[in-house]
Specification:
427 residues, alpha+beta, four-stranded mixed β-sheet, three-stranded antiparallel β-sheet, 8 helices, 11 strands, 28% helix, 11% strand
Length: 427
């Protein structure tokens, strides 16, 4: 069993610890909404909160137990009801699976049975024998672990949209660093970095990856110049003042002053934080500056390339991620000032390439040559190769360390306002 986060190999005990850690983190996240909010739909384009508490264990049962190991499930009705989420283009296109959801007690009872079944399988079942496609390199096991982590971030996007009185304030879920920022802080420490052309590796071979990450291949990139730091709130405010552009989703105005609408509080707009915007907004800003968004390959060159031509596993090198490298792994609920993690800079001195906000690219989300749908989740990527989604790289404060690997690709619609997404410009 091979995974980028375990360069020396993965044991069954590692998988169980990962699973239990994920379940415990989900429990903390699901404790944020007040009890009466359980059936709320904070984002109209997504299912209500109740769906996700059932979806995570049902996905584990459907994928690992039933598909990979050919076992019986626990509750067929739940394993159909909670099978898949939604990504509609508009509210009018949204179809909810039901308006008659089970009670929270029933869903948690189902989850407890699923947890016991999955842990036993991770410890004892033939999850890595290669006799089924889903059991090659423990694909189904890795898929359920990372699937839960992805939904933890999705949940925080949703909970960000809830009125403060509908949720309980929690402390960050991991140990991080203490940062302070104010509306009087530095607007930007950005300056251009010239990146010489070279060859980059997109995708992955040899460790677990979702189907859109595969296969690994080499791409030639020409010379380009890129911002050292993400575009800040202060820079975006200057753009708004110059053009009359509407504010981003996470901003609000009170008595003539701008504020940041955070997960648990609204604060004076921190000018030195990265601005979180849609792809459409990022593209318009870059055009106003006479620049553009980087391609996926250019992001890779800036993040993982080196003057020698070698490529790193992470921007800072091959060492595994830790709290000094970037604002990821739930160590903060919101962004921090740009450039706060010099130990996470790339070989070219480009900052915050992992964490503090996913990075929009100009690359439409599409398959790599040689793409094959993954046996554990055949529809994971294929439905989104529609020229309506853009590739995002890097990670946000809510992204776990396992998902900031070099090959990981995220994607969203260009007008979707809820994602924790930053950007930088290139030319």
């Amino acid at each position: 069993m091979r995974h980028a986060s375990f360069p020396d190999g993965v044991t069954r005990d590692d998988l169980v610890r990962w699973y239990r850690r994920g379940r415990a983190l989900s429990e903390k996240i699901f404790s944020i909404p007040i009890a009466d909010a359980y059936y709320d739909r904070p984002i109209p384009l997504r299912n209500p909160i109740v769906f996700y508490e059932g979806h995570i264990p049902a996905f584990a049962v459907n994928t690992l137990m039933k598909l990979a190991l050919k076992c019986h499930g626990i509750n067929e009705r739940y394993e159909v009801l909670f099978a898949r989420g939604i990504d509609p283009e508009s509210v009018d296109a949204m179809k909810s699976p039901t308006d008659l959801w089970p009670s929270r007690e029933e869903i948690r009872a189902y989850a407890a049975r699923a947890d016991a079944m999955v842990i036993d399988a991770l410890l004892n079942a033939p999850i890595d024998d290669g006799r089924e496609p889903q059991r090659v390199n423990a694909e189904a096991a890795f898929a359920i672990l990372e699937h839960e982590q992805m939904h933890q971030e999705t949940l925080l996007y949703m909970f960000h949209e809830m009125p403060y009185e509908r949720k309980v304030r929690r402390w960050p879920l991991a140990v991080g660093r203490d940062f302070s920022s104010s509306a009087n802080g530095q607007r930007s420490t950005a300056n251009d970095v010239r990146i010489p052309g070279g060859v980059v590796t997109l995708g992955a071979d040899g460790w677990f990856g979702w189907d859109n990450e595969l296969p690994a291949h080499r791409v030639e990139v020409g010379d380009f110049t890129i911002d050292r730091n993400n575009i800040t709130n202060g820079e975006y405010l200057d753009y708004m003042n110059a053009t009359g552009t509407e504010p981003p989703h996470f901003w609000t105005r009170r008595n003539g002053a701008w504020f940041w609408h955070g997960l648990f509080e609204t604060i004076p707009l921190p000018l030195d934080w990265p601005v979180w915007v849609t792809h459409d907004e990022a593209t318009a800003f870059a055009r106003w500056r006479g620049k553009r968004l980087p391609t996926e390959a250019e992001y890779h060159r800036a993040a993982f390339g080196t003057p020698s031509g070698a490529e790193r596993m992470y921007p800072w090198g091959d060492e595994q991620p830790d709290a000094t490298r970037g604002n990821f792994g739930h160590s903060n609920w919101d962004p921090v000032p740009v450039g706060s993690y010099p130990a996470g800079a790339s070989a070219w001195g480009v900052h915050d390439l992992t964490g503090n906000g996913w990075e929009w690219t100009s690359t439409l989300f599409d398959r790599f040559d040689g793409f094959r749908p993954m046996p554990s989740y055949p529809l994971y990527s294929a439905e989104f190769f529609d020229a309506k989604h853009y590739v995002m790289k890097g990670g946000s404060p809510a992204t776990p360390p396992e998902l900031i690997r070099r090959s990981f690709r995220n994607w969203f619609r260009p007008s979707y306002p809820y994602v924790y997404a930053a950007f930088r410009c290139t030319v």
